[in-house]
Amino acid sequence: LMALLVILPLIEIGLLVTLGAWLGLWTTLMVVLASALLGASVIRRQGFVTMLEVRRALEMRRDPGQAVADGALTVLAGALLILPGFFTTAIGLLLLIPGARRGVARWAGRQIRRRGVVVQGDMRGFRAADSTDNETIDGDFFEVQPVKRPTHHPSGWTRH
């Protein structure tokens, strides 16, 4: 992740300088502005569309995972389009293609299944753990009802 945070801006700067010299200042600025407006439009529209698709999948008793993954990747595409630069714009435009999103979702699903990553949480936070961990902790629990404390302090002048 750290390498990506260093390399991505270098790629973007190099492309902006190279393509900006070829296209000219105003054309480059218009491409960057149009990309940002398209990205904002995609993000604004996608939340509503994803909500409808998830609702439709649940009503038909189907797994909404594909609709959620498709929506998340479309929102990622919009965010990449908003970022100024040609590289992120190209990736964002690719992610707007439904076949590309399906391919990325399948690849991510295979990676998750292959690694068998699960998320475990406790009071200190969350961590990813290998699902091949054979350590099982058995325990019992019971709910503790909170003690109802008075919201006022009687002064003696009024009844409680």
Give your account of this protein's structure.
The chain has 160 residues and is mainly α. The chain has five helices and two strands, in the order αααααββ. The protein has helices spanning 2-23, 25-59, 65-82, 86-95, 98-115; strands at residues 117-122, 125-130. A two-stranded antiparallel ribbon has the order 1-2. The longest helix is centred in the first third of the chain and has 35 residues, at 25-59. Residues 119-128 have low confidence and may be disordered.
List the helices and strands and how they pair.
Layout: H1 2-23, H2 25-59, H3 65-82, H4 86-95, H5 98-115, E1 117-122, E2 125-130
Antiparallel strand pairs: 1-2
Helix pairs in contact: 1-2, 2-3, 3-4, 3-5
Looking at this protein, list some descriptive labels.
160 residues, mainly alpha, extended
